[in-house]
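Morning. Coffee machine broken again, so started the prediction first thing and wrote up yesterday's gels while waiting. Chain of 292 residues, entered below exactly as on the submission form.
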Amino acid sequence: ECKQSRQTSIQCYDTHLSAQYYRRAIVIDALRSELDKDIEHSEIYVVAQPIVAQGKPQWDYFEILARWNSDVLGAISPLEFIEAAEQSGLIIELGERIIELACQAKIKLEHGLGYRVRLGINCSAHEINNANRYVQHLLHTLGKYGFNAEDFTIEMTETVLLSRINEVKTTLDKLRLLGFSIALDDFGTGYSSLNYIHTYPIDCIKIDATFVRNMLSNESSESVVWLIIQLANKLHVSLIAEGVESEEALQKLYSMGCKKIQGFYFSTPKEPEELVEGIKALTNIDSQVSNG
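Came back before lunch.
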């Protein structure tokens, strides 16, 4: 346990540690078995959350998020199973499964909505550190489904960018050359966010949800959001605000110049079929209002 924390060199034994490590071992074992299955029988699935542009009637941009509902262990939080995948070395296989599931979700969304959509896919540090395998699998899977790189944004947090600067930059340059866009997720929470903007080829920054949720009651959070918006405008970088849950927050962001919004205000993350039904219902309501 001490090895997991730089700040802790002494740790008294506690029964919760045994329970914690036992649970982790069970989840890792279940995940290993899960990834051995064919994708058609996968308990791991993906949901999509829309990223909505102001004044654009079509919802055509979605972030893909992984979920796992185990027959044995029940619903397992993404935080838990992704951490287990990272600690066990299964994160690359898990990432490859998610990319394929994302492509299947894209088919369902486009078939249901009747137009092309763009997807945001999260990328871990482990995947970037195995760049050749990651890029080859990405291209192979997109080719298998007949998709173009231009329809995908690769999202990553600062932890992906913390080491091996030259190698990571080379990989991101290659991805952009192939047609992918690069987004920096949870912007503003790390200690060197500004440094990454000019060090790496970043096309989009996503304002961390914590600042957005707090900006209506905390002046410091509001100031941070305003500064990030000004920075994005000056650098001509696309901008998305995460964690928008109310009309008040939405209008505040619009007034400050942020035009792309992600959050529960528009939709929770949902499976593609459910999302399509919700968007169609919303479109019908808007149409009736316009005609009424």
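The chain has a mean pLDDT of 90. Going to sketch it on the whiteboard this afternoon.
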